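Anyone opening a protein record will find just a pair of labelled lines. With that in mind, the following record should read easily:
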Amino acid sequence: MLTDKQVEEFLERDGWPYERVDHNTWRSGFRGDKNSFRFYIRLSEHWIFYTIVPFVVAPKRPEQEVRLYRRLLELNRDINMAKFAIDDDHDVVLTVELPVENLVYSEFKDALDALSFYADKHYVELLNLAHGEATDELAN
């Protein structure tokens, strides 16, 4: 079973700066090619969650919602390990969820790699779908 101390050891081993938010939640971040991203890691009894929330703020217009949500479904079909979702405010969330039983460092690292890879790869596209014709300059 993964412990809170192991989570911190894994973060430190991979060079991730972090802040402990509470007993089972940590906050960290990274700078990608397109934007800076803040993410949270939450440890539960059976799962560990790595989440960027919000990844993209909810669209204002219904036609943007339809295009965005359709694309999120397509991406969820195509990507591995991670998934897109929407939260209670309809903001887009990017998350990786892994069972903690027998979780090893390489799997922990793979989850962070997947989160950062997909965040950087899809941010500008999803931002444009959600908010019209945003430019790369606005995305930075």
Notes: The CA atoms of residues 58 and 91 lie 4 Å apart. DSSP finds four helices and six strands in the chain. Confidence is low (pLDDT under 50) at residues 134-140. The radius of gyration is 15 Å.
